Amino acid sequence: MNMHHRSILTDEQVVDLVRTKNQELYGEIIRRYETKLTHYLRKFIHSQDELKDVLQDVFIKAFRNLYDFDVDKKFSAWIYRIAHNEALNYLKKYHRSSISLDEVDWSLLEDKKDLNRETDHQFFKNQVEKGIALVKEKYRDPLILYLFEEKSYEEIGDILHLPTSTVGIRIMRGKKLLQQFLTQEIYGKK
Q1: Same structural domain, 71 and 118
Q2: Burial group, residue 54, by CB count within 10 angstroms (0-12, 13-18, 19+)
């Protein structure tokens, strides 16, 4: 199958072909998700080498569990879920809790004016980074997926195995906690 034909297939169709006809086609899945998942994992893992290892683990795990994937569901949510779990395992193993937002497209926050006060850009970035690391995991994880990965509530629900309504509540709560932190840091209010 040539490159052009491959690229018009959905993720789910590619997975189906990998499972039934040609395992080599898994390379197409890696090609589609390498950059996206690198961006996502970089928020949790700062070391380039360690990130590469974790990314490799994600692709190996996904490949090994490919038969468990339900092709009627969204593959992207399924593989993000694996990446998310691997990132959390990494953080637990090394007792890390800091979040790195170096790779973030900060223009995504420009339209979320409720978070972005007129402050020095670098300072704001550092504060958001600090704030998100302090927000409890249950609020932090949906918040990162929503603010920086531009996932919909439905997709976040699939990734984190939560009802969509719960995702909405946690994002609202997470944004509120983050805002409180930013207000304190930027305006020195206690």
Answers
A1: no
A2: buried
Domain that holds residue 169: 107-187
Residues 80 and 114 in one domain: no
Mark whether 81 and 116 lie in a shared domain.
no
Q: Which residue would you say has higher pLDDT here, 112 or 181?
A: 181
At residue 130, the pLDDT reads 82
pLDDT tier at 25, thresholds 50, 70, 90? very high
Sign of the Cα torsion 92, 137, 131, 126 reads: positive
Of 119 and 77, more confident: 77
Which residue pairs from 101-108 have beta carbons closer than 8 angstroms and sit at least 24 positions apart in sequence?
A: 101/43, 101/125, 101/128, 101/129, 101/132, 101/148, 102/42, 103/39, 103/42, 103/43, 104/43, 104/148, 105/148, 108/147, 108/148, 108/150
